[in-house]
Task: structure prediction
Amino acid sequence: MSRLTAEMIGELRSELLRQLSRLERSMQVTDEAVRPVELDQQAVGRLSRMDSLQNQHMSQNLQEREKVRYGAIKGALERIEEGTYGICTDCGGALAPGRLMVMPEVEHCSDCGG
Result:
């Protein structure tokens, strides 16, 4: 297994920052979508209200996934700053560079279930 070079870590850090920026923009849109649905009996039919509630529920699920991903990316950036990036947070073994190229926010090796 090859080790991460400083250049690779720099590229991965840049990718993490790009992903974080895109995710923050997406989270702003999702925050708008999860606002309470107003049930105006006059303006909206029963099926439209059900659609609105279903869309809100799907947006809430998306919001939860975005929060988890946001935490994972922030954690990876912190590990880069601490000098522990590329090391499994469970067993302390080295993470495969190829694995990090695909999922730069990953914190566990494949043996530890990440």
